[in-house]
Amino acid sequence: MENQNKIEKLKSIRDEVIKLKASPLYEYRTSNKYLPVIGEGSHDAKIMFVGEAPGKNEALTGRPFCGAAGKVLDQLLAHVNIPRASVYITNIVKDRPPENRDPSSAEIEIYGPFLDKQIEIIQPEVIATLGRYAMGYIMKKFDLDLELEPIGKAHGKAYPAKASYGDINIATLYHPCMAVYNPHNIDNLKKDFEVLKSFS
Question: Would you give the DSSP letter of residue 151?
Answer without folding.
Answer: H
